[in-house]
Every structure is written in C-alpha cells, then in structure tokens.
Design goal:
25% helix, eight-stranded antiparallel beta sheet, Alpha-D-Glucose-1,6-Bisphosphate, Chain A, domain 4, 4 helices, alpha+beta
Length: 163
C-alpha cells in the first residue's frame, strides 16, 4: 500500500514516478471528469484547492485555461510575490499542465472511471526546470510531494461538494 497523506480530510496516494526529479499523487473523486477538469481549468479557483498554502489568487489571465494561455498568480512563500504561468498541455478533459519562468511543471491528468467517478493524478516535474538539482537545495521535491497530497484532498472535497 502506498503512503498517504495523514490527518483530516480525504487521503491521496503517493505515486512512485521512478524519477528523481518528479513527485506525484493520485486520488479518486466522486464527480464526473468534466466537472473536476473544469475546476482545475479555472485559474481563479486555484487558491481554493491549493494544498501548499502558496497560491493566494489569480492576478491576471483568462477565466478558463487553454493551450498556450498565460495566467499570473499572487503567491506567498515567506513573502508575497507574483508569478506568470504558461499552459503547455491542454487536452480537455484529460490533461492540463503549466510551467513558470523556472520551467518546472505542474501537470494534472484526469481519467473517468465511470460517469460519476474520476481519478486525478497530479505531478510536479522538476526535470523540466532550468537546473533541477537547485530545486533539491530548496527542498522543492519533498515540499511539493506533501503539497500534492493536500491539494488532491482539497480538490476532492471541492469537486464532491459541487457535484
């Protein structure tokens, strides 16, 4: 049995990516795939399900993501800052991935298990970063693994409350 996030709320499973610069988690959500996809495709909702506590809200960009779209986010890790992301993959309703200036990526994969159940896998991919080893010095891999599990739990709660 893979490790899961401890504590209150839904539990997401750690996914072994078999890659030193990637971290991932997976959860099953009792909501249709399109509804779950729509939540993640709305950058204005990212702060609602972000489990890292760093996403403060959408600063700029579209109300709905699409291939090549850019969107700015207000962030906070110790101090407030702003970051611009670019959507690199968008295949509705199965995949959304974006990156920012550092080039590491966040990717969501959605798989309909049936009409009302969706499996979601989130991956933090540091292999695409400008210098992947630097992320290790910042503890980004461990921190993102914890954040992924928390994010997926929050996404499940959010999607199931609106399904």
């Amino acid at each position: 049995m893979p490790p899961t996030v401890a504590g209150m709320g839904p539990r997401a499973d750690v996914v072994d990516t078999e890659h030193r610069y990637r971290r991932a988690g997976r959860i099953v959500i009792d909501a249709p795939v399109q509804e779950v996809f729509d939540i993640v495709a709305d950058p204005g909702r990212h702060a609602e399900f972000d489990g890292s506590g760093t996403v403060q809200g959408r600063l700029s960009g579209p109300d709905r993501l699409s291939a090549g779209a850019t969107f700015g986010m207000d962030m906070r890790i110790g101090f407030p800052y702003r970051i611009t992301n670019t959507v690199e993959e968008f295949d509705e309703p199965t995949v959304i991935a974006w990156r920012h200036l550092g080039r590491h990526r966040w990717r969501y994969e959605f798989r309909a298990l049936d009409e009302s159940t969706t499996e979601v896998t989130e991956t933090f991919d540091g292999s695409t970063a400008l210098f992947p080893p630097a992320l290790r010095l910042m503890n980004a891999y461990d921190n993102n693994q914890k954040a992924i599990l928390a994010t997926l739990g929050r996404l499940k709660t959010l999607a199931e409350s609106t399904a």
